[in-house]
Amino acid sequence: GIVLHGSQQNQIGGTGPNEGNLIASNEGNGITLEAFSDGNTIQGNAIGLGVQNVPLGNQGDGIRLDSSYQNLIGGDSPAAGNVIRSNNGYGVNLVYGSSEDTIRLNSISANTGGGIKLAEGANGGITPPEIFLTSPISGYSIAVGTVDVYADMGAQGLLYVGNGATKDGAWYLHDDDAQFGGYNFTATVTDAAGNP
User: Fold this and answer.
1) What is the CA 33 to chain-centroid distance, rounded?
2) Strands, E, within 71-196: which ranges?
3) Per-residue pLDDT tens for 25-54?
4) Beta strand residue intervals within the chain, DSSP E
5) Is the sign of the CA dihedral 82, 88, 92, 96 positive or negative?
6) Which among 149, 46, 47, 39 is positioned nearest to 101, based on CA atoms?
C-alpha cells in the first residue's frame, strides 16, 4: 500500500481523469498516514478494488490514520470521493488521537470491520448523527454542522444521498427515500473544525 510517515501536504489521487489510484491486494492497509502526517489530501482512489471494480480488498483497513491531523479524505463533491470497498479491516480507521480529519462523500461499503471507525477521542469524540425519519430524511445531531447521508444494503455508505445543515441540532434533507427503496440509511456529521 501507500504509507506516509511524518509527511505533510501530499496529494494521493485527484479529481481529474486518470488521477486516482487502484490500491488493492496489500498485506496491510491500503493507505496509512502515521507519525503526524498532516494536511494530506486523498481523493478519487479505488481502495480495495482492482480493474473493472473487481473486489480484491486489502488485508488491513482501507485507510488508517494514526496520530495524523487535518487530512482530507474525499471532499465536497462526488468527484473527490474515494471508493473504499471489500477491505478486511475498516473502510476508514482513525486511531490514537487523530483529529480534524475530514471524511466526506466517499463510497464506503462491504468492509469486514465496518465503514468508519473513530477510536476514543479521535476527531474530538464527535457523536454520529441520529436518523429519526426517512420521509423526509431527518434527525438530530450536534448544534452546528453538516450532515451527509448515505444509502447502503448494510450499515456502511455505498451511495451518497445528500446533505443538510443542522439548526440547533435538528437536520433534514429535502430528498425522501423513494429512490432508495430497500436501502438502509447511515449518516456522518462534520463540524466547523472538519471533524466527522
Assistant:
1) 15
2) 72-74, 83-85, 90-95, 102-104, 107-109, 114-118, 130-134, 137-140, 146-152, 159-165, 170-172, 184-190
3) 999 999 999 999 999 999 999 999 999 999
4) 2-5, 11-13, 22-23, 31-34, 41-43, 46-47, 63-66, 72-74, 83-85, 90-95, 102-104, 107-109, 114-118, 130-134, 137-140, 146-152, 159-165, 170-172, 184-190
5) negative
6) 39
